């Protein structure tokens, strides 16, 4: 565990000096990621928001608080997962990152995942899900329904299952219309927790 954390700290220091670490001069700080280096479940979001930019920590605003509550209700508190984003700095005006910005950040996200080697990746939001599963700009609703989403890398012994779900910011906005989307969000997270604990097997595509 300590060895993995030391490698993550070294990676974060190198990232600071890279193109991805210098994106968006308007951002206050880099948000690398945090959590348990031995985590079986890694949560990947799109990019830091205002509170994350202020604190340097991922998912600590209202969206993060909702994510924490749903994780805890599923039996996996925040301190037992690892949380990061595809993009490590806050885009100006909270805009979506461009494909070029995602590509600049991708090697660093891959390096994080290779160090952590979790049992499952929980992708929150369209950008994170398409990035991890290497799909072409599919809507999150379609990604949620896809079977056997995986993250593949030549340095991994086997693919890592990906569970795609809505971004908690979307869930917060949808609550005024009822709890249906929140229930879907909670089901997705519980599925990821079951896979991480070995209680649900995600069948990988033939040939992987």
Describe this structure in words.
This protein has helices at residues 2-16, 50-55, 62-73, 99-116, 126-133, 140-145, 168-174, 180-197; strands at residues 34-35, 41-45, 82-85, 120-124, 150-151, 160-165. By secondary structure, it is of the alpha/beta class. The protein has a single domain (2-197), classed as Uracil-DNA glycosylase-like domain (Uracil-DNA Glycosylase, subunit E, 3-Layer(aba) Sandwich). β5 and β6 (160-165) form a beta hairpin. α1 runs antiparallel to α4. The longest helix is centred in the middle third of the chain and has 18 residues, at 99-116. The model has no long low-confidence stretch (mean pLDDT 93).
Share of β-strand residues: 5-15%
Alpha carbon gyration radius: 16 Å
**Low-confidence region ranges:** none
Along the chain, the helix and strand elements come as HEEHHEHEHHEEHH
The domain tally reads 1
- Major sheet: 6 strands, mixed
Mean pLDDT: 93
CATH topology label: Uracil-DNA Glycosylase, subunit E
Let me know the CATH homologous superfamily. Uracil-DNA glycosylase-like domain
Helical proportion, percent range: 40-55%
Q: Give the C-level CATH assignment.
A: Alpha Beta
Enumerate the strands of the largest sheet in spatial order, edge to edge or round the barrel: 1-3-2-4-6-5
Number of strands: 6
Distance between the termini: 28 Å
CATH architecture: 3-Layer(aba) Sandwich
Question: How would the global form be characterised?
Answer: globular
Q: Total helix count? A: 8
- Derived structural class: alpha/beta
């Amino acid at each position: 565990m300590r060895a993995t954390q030391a490698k993550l700290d070294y990676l974060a220091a190198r990232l600071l000096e890279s193109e991805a670490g210098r994106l968006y001069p308007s951002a206050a700080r880099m948000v690398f990621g945090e959590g348990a280096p031995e985590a079986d479940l890694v949560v990947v979001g799109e990019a830091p928001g205002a509170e994350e930019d202020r604190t340097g920590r991922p998912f600590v605003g209202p969206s993060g608080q909702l994510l924490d509550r749903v994780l805890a209700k599923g039996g996996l508190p925040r301190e037992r997962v690892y949380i990061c984003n595809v993009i490590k700095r806050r885009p100006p005006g909270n805009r979506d990152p461009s494909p070029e910005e995602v590509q600049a950040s991708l090697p660093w996200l891959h390096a994080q995942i290779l160090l952590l080697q979790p049992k499952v990746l929980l992708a929150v939001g369209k950008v994170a899900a398409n990035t991890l599963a290497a799909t072409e700009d599919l809507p999150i609703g379609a990604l949620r329904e896809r079977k056997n989403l995986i993250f593949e890398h030549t340095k991994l012994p086997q693919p890592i299952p990906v569970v795609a779900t809505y971004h908690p910011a979307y869930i917060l906005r949808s609550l005024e219309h009822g709890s249906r989307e929140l229930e879907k969000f909670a089901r997705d997270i519980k599925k990821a927790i079951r896979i991480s604990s070995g209680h649900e097997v995600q069948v990988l595509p033939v040939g992987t």
